[in-house]
Amino acid sequence: AAGPRPERTLLFAAWTGEERGILGSFHYAANPLYPNETMVASLALDTLQTAGPSRDVILIGQGQSDLEDLMTRMAASQGRTVTPDGQPQRGLFYRADHFPFARQGVPVLLLMALGGGADLVNGGREAGDRWVSEFTARCYHQTCDEWSSDWDLRGAAQDVALAYSIGMELANSRAWPNWSQDSEFR
Fold first, then answer.
1. If you ran DSSP here, which 8-state letter would residue 5 be given?
2. What is the rounded distance in angstroms from the CA atom of residue 10 to the CA atom of residue 55?
3. Most buried of 37, 85, 118, 144, CB within 10 angstroms?
4. What average pLDDT does this structure show over 21-38?
5. What number of other Cβ atoms are within 10 A of residue 133's Cβ?
6. How far from chain centre, in Å, is Cα 142?
7. Other CB atoms within 10 Å distance of the CB of residue 173
8. pLDDT tens by residue, 86-115
9. Which residues is 112 bridged to in the sheet?
């Protein structure tokens, strides 16, 4: 709020009912405050990794939209690369809160650490894969899923900063990202 006013309106939301069928975001996408056709993009943050800084960011839903090019450029400005989802068979692109917006035709980008391990600065891809396995085996989507004092949130901070830079680029431009030619959402 203290910074310069962006050229476009930004809307921030926190959804409920994701684990129950993406209920909150489906409701909003069907009953938006602003018409979906005026939305440039939907950027979603879901399960940020807590194992420290990484050399890359995981892309969920590779090949869907122009937003991937923007993500690649912004990740490079952080000294990172973009790595495609290492477990596409899990269908994460179709199971998170950005999906209802995709169904409405809004280009989407999901930052989620569960699509295969990141290339961690400390331990590489092997350590990233181990983090995903341990995180999902412990208490993921259960009542024991809670904050831990041993988390290293520098990797999460990298992804939040990446989402911020993508959002600000879109908020201060006339760009209208589009779906890829072969995307089912085009």
1. P
2. 29
3. 118
4. 90
5. 11
6. 21
7. 13
8. 888 888 899 888 999 999 999 999 999 888
9. 46
Contact 43, 50 (CB under 8 A): no
Report DSSP state, residue 101: H
Residue with tokens 């990141």: 118
Instruction: Give 151's contacts (C-beta < 8 A, 6+ positions apart).
Output: 50, 51
Stretch 75-81: mean pLDDT? 97
Contact of 159 with 78, CB cutoff 8 Å: no
Q: Which of these, 51, 3, 44, 49, lies nearest to 25 by C-alpha position?
A: 44
d(CA 141, CA 95): 13
The label of the residue with tokens 């602003």 reads 34
Cα–Cα distance between 168 and 156 in angstroms, integer?
18
Tens digits of per-residue pLDDT, 9-18?
A: 999 998 887 7
Q: What are phi and psi of 141, to 5 degrees?
A: 60, 30
Residue pair 26/98 in contact by the 8 Å Cβ criterion: no
Q: Which residue has the tokens 């779906």?
A: 179
> φ and ψ at 124, to 5 degrees?
65, -160
